[in-house]
Amino acid sequence: MIAQLLVDNGGLFDSWLPYAELRTFTYHFGFHSAVAAFHWIIGASMPRATLWVGQIVNVLAVLALYPLAVRVGKSRWAGFGAMFVAGLLSPMPMFYTNWGRYTQLAGQVILPAAILIAWMVLEARAHDRRLLALAWLAWGGLALTHYRVLIFGICFFAAYFLFEARRARIVETVRQIVWMGVGGGFLFLPWFVHTFGGKITANFARQLTTPADAVSAWTQQYNSIGDLASYLPMTVWLALVLAIGYGLWRREKDFAIFVLWWFFVLLAANPRWLRLPGEGALSNFAVFIAAYIVAGVVLGAMVATFRVSRFTLQVGLLVLLTALGLWGARERVLEVRAEPHALVTRADLRAAEWIRNNTPANARFLVNSFFAYNDSVIVGSDGGWWLPLLARRQTTLPPINYGSEQGVRADYREWINALPR
Prior knowledge:
Largest sheet: 2 strands, parallel
């Protein structure tokens, strides 16, 4: 719907009409703008364009690990290893297809590049304006694409500063970080100011300032880590732990900075461990469905440390990796399960077309819904949620953004929730 509104308005917008009765738009829009551009190029319908761009982003999320892994592992084999692990051995990011969680995935396409460029700026011996400008674009783009993934990236600066800020370079390090922050922040500033028109910024500020002992039981439950095997196979988790231990024992500086960065990301999602406020601002779920990044880079870096010189061993290793890759490819394809996850089917598309052709334009439909997020909003359970987009008819269920945007009345969220209650 956001991508369709971008096309309808020729760019950014405030009003969600005619699809929803919302008066502000403050959500991040990187993925949606890519969908709009794809639609403009090939002319596909918006639902189909969204699916296509989702898969493109899914592939790019794996390819994006290559240069960062090469930096950490000091070898091209580290890059290939990272893509092998994330693309074939890990259920993520492939599993994002079932959720349509492509907005976060789009941020995670930019994240490795933003980290790598920042790293290059921080370690450049001379002031490189072109590299700095590239850092501004990467970090400004990341901020516009996904707010939570931006927090992932910011944690890198804390890790780098803690590990690398020697007395001789501390002023230069701080200066470079500030320069990158100012440039990226300047690109993001107009949109950041705009977000105050909705509720996203206020909700985030409230989460950041809630003391650890005042966090609700629901928030603690919602932020629980859950089953680790649902994010990565347990064999990969075990290999990851062993690889981290081995890499730290080897005292590789870049490897240690990378691992420390991801540890800080984990702490950012769990500030209660340190008795700090902010629980819920960054969820463990968002962090662990991105665990393919750390698994790919770390295990890829470990692959680069091994050298096989004998021809017979090289052939045996190639056969083993091929078999493992084919098995992983089969597992990844089987994990795309439309039946339990999809809301709209071909039958729903036919029904939407019938509704569009046989009902008045001002008709309003009562559609199926259920309460979510501690009963704060209602969400759809079938294709009825899509009727405003597919049939151009109003329903009793706006997009989930109504919980963070301004509606046509001051009590819009409560008014929407009252009917299903």
